[in-house]
Design goal:
Number of strands: 5
Number of helices: 10
Helix content: 40-55%
CATH topology of the largest domain: Arc Repressor Mutant, subunit A
Shape: elongated
Order of helices and strands: HHHHEEHHHHEHHEE
CATH class of the largest domain: Mainly Alpha
Strand order of the largest sheet: 3-5-4
Distance between the termini: 27 Å
Structural class: mainly alpha
Largest sheet: 3 strands, antiparallel
Length: 197
C-alpha cells in the first residue's frame, strides 16, 4: 500500500474516532445542514461544529454549498465508499507483514498441528529452540514431567530437546525443576544470523 494511502487512512480513522464527528457524518448522510442546525441538534457550540466540519472537509468527506449568507454542508456522495475501496481493494499480500527468515524456518520445520522436525543446521535449530522456549511462561517453575509432556506434544525425543534448551541457556534446571531464562541470557541470541537460502 502506498505511503500516501496509509497516511490518508490513518487520518480518516483518527478523525472518525471522535463521537461528535461520527454523529455529524450520520446527520449529513441524511441531507444538507447549516452549522447552526447541526450545533442545535448535537448540543454543541457553533465554533466546535465548524472545527469538526473542517476536519471532515479536509478528509474529502464533506462538501460546502454557499447560499447567500448561509453555508450548507453535506456528505460528499461516494466519499465513504471510496475510502472503503482504498482500504479493502488492496492485495492482501501487500497488507500482510513481510515474512521473516525465522517465519520460513518455522513454516518448514513445524507442522500445522505443532509437531516438529529437528533441523540439522544449528542456526535453524536455534529458531526451533526459541519457539519451544516460548511455549513456557517466563517466571513459572515447571516439574520435569510437565516439561516432558509439553515437549512430547512437539517431538518424541523430549530428553534431547530438554538438553538443547538448557545448553542454549534458554531454560535452566535445578532439582528436577525447570524455568525459562530471560532472552538476553540465551546463548547465541545476539549472534544468530539468518542463513541464505
Amino acid at each position: 500500500m502506498p505511503e500516501a494511502d496509509i497516511a490518508a487512512l490513518l487520518a480518516f480513522f483518527k478523525a472518525m474516532a471522535n463521537e461528535s464527528r461520527l454523529k455529524l457524518v450520520g446527520l449529513l448522510a441524511h441531507g444538507e445542514h447549516t452549522v447552526q442546525e447541526l450545533a442545535e441538534v448535537l448540543g454543541l457550540k457553533e465554533p466546535t461544529v465548524s472545527h469538526h466540519l473542517a476536519v471532515l472537509k479536509d478528509l474529502g468527506l464533506v462538501a460546502v454549498r454557499p447560499d447567500g449568507v448561509m453555508r450548507w454542508h453535506s456528505l460528499k456522495p461516494g466519499a465513504l465508499a471510496q475510502m472503503n475501496r482504498r482500504l479493502l481493494d488492496q492485495d492482501p499480500a501487500a497488507l500482510a507483514p513481510e515474512e521473516t527468515w525465522e517465519d520460513r524456518v518455522l513454516a518448514t520445520f513445524v507442522a500445522p498441528d505443532g509437531a516438529l522436525t529437528i533441523p540439522a543446521s544449528r542456526r535453524k535449530r536455534w529458531v526451533i529452540l526459541k519457539w519451544l522456549a516460548e511455549q513456557f511462561d517466563a517466571g513459572r517453575r515447571y516439574p520435569e514431567a510437565e516439561v516432558n509432556e509439553t515437549l512430547q506434544r512437539r517431538h518424541w525425543d523430549c530428553a534431547t530437546l530438554r538438553r538443547e534448551l538448557i545448553g542454549a541457556r534458554m531454560m535452566a534446571r535445578e532439582a528436577g525443576v525447570y524455568w525459562r531464562l530471560p532472552e538476553a541470557e540465551w546463548r547465541g541470541f545476539a549472534d544468530a544470523k539468518p542463513e541464505v537460502g
